Amino acid sequence: MQMLQAIAVGLPLTILVTILALAIGTVLAIPLVAGLRSGNRLVWLLTRGTIDLLRGIPPVVWLFILYYGVSIGALRMSALQAAVIGLGLVAAAYLAEIFRGAIGSVHQGQWEASSALGFRTGTAWGRVIGPQAWRTAIPAYTTYGIGLLKDSSIASTIGVAEIVFMSNQYARQSGEGILVFFIAAGIYILLSMPLGMLSRHLDTKMRKAVAR
């Protein structure tokens, strides 16, 4: 019981890092999607390059860059801030691709119908294109959220006291390494299972809707 309590101390930060990074990634993915869909070649190239850069560098390296590289002089970034921003930037790149694919799956007829009804661009996106694209994106979005939950463990490398960090601390103090990390793994599974079930449910629901 004492071991579980010691590890569970890191649970709130694990959840916080995951939620905040996912939120940042979602917000930043929107302009990236706009850039990928831009008819301007230069904008497209800059957006494509940004996404490839964010995806090409391992998340843990981004955390080191932000925590050790940016925190110079008067500018100081806490370990939690570096973890959230670093994982959020990487999430933005992956979510942009998810959203781009979801938007691309909307039938051309929906665009034409919106135009025929006289909808302005914002109205068409808000009432027709956006909702359909979002329904398509939800399963992949949820799956990425599960992956991000597991990736939050790398925040321990810069001192964020999440599950893995607390597990490592307890293992060093008690010498019970194997059991400690088995419990940590169990906590991640318990956190991931509801999200996995939600993802499968939404995916099945979407497939049925498409088949109608």
Question: Concise description?
Answer:
With 212 residues, the protein is mainly alpha-helical. The protein is 82% helix and 0% strand.
Describe the structure.
By secondary structure, the chain is mainly alpha-helical. It has a single domain, classed as Orthogonal Bundle (MetI-like fold), CATH 1.10.3720. The protein has 9 helices and no strands. The chain has helices spanning 2-8, 11-36, 41-56, 59-70, 79-104, 108-116, 121-151, 163-174, 177-211. It is flat. The chain starts with a helix and ends with a helix.
Radius of gyration: 20 Å
Q: Return the CATH architecture.
A: Orthogonal Bundle
Query: At the third CATH level, what is the topology name?
Result: MetI-like fold
Choose one word for the global shape.
flat
Biggest sheet details = none
Strand-residue proportion: under 5%
Please give the domain count: 1
* CATH homologous superfamily descriptor: MetI-like
The H-and-E topology, N to C, reads as: HHHHHHHHH
Q: Could you say which structural class the secondary elements and strand pairing correspond to?
A: mainly alpha
Distance between the termini: 51 Å
- Total number of strands: 0
Question: Mean pLDDT across all residues, rounded?
Answer: 86
**Name of the top-level CATH class:** Mainly Alpha
What characteristics describe this protein?
MetI-like fold; single chain; 82% helix; 212 residues; mainly alpha
Topology:
Blueprint: H1 2-8, H2 11-36, H3 41-56, H4 59-70, H5 79-104, H6 108-116, H7 121-151, H8 163-174, H9 177-211
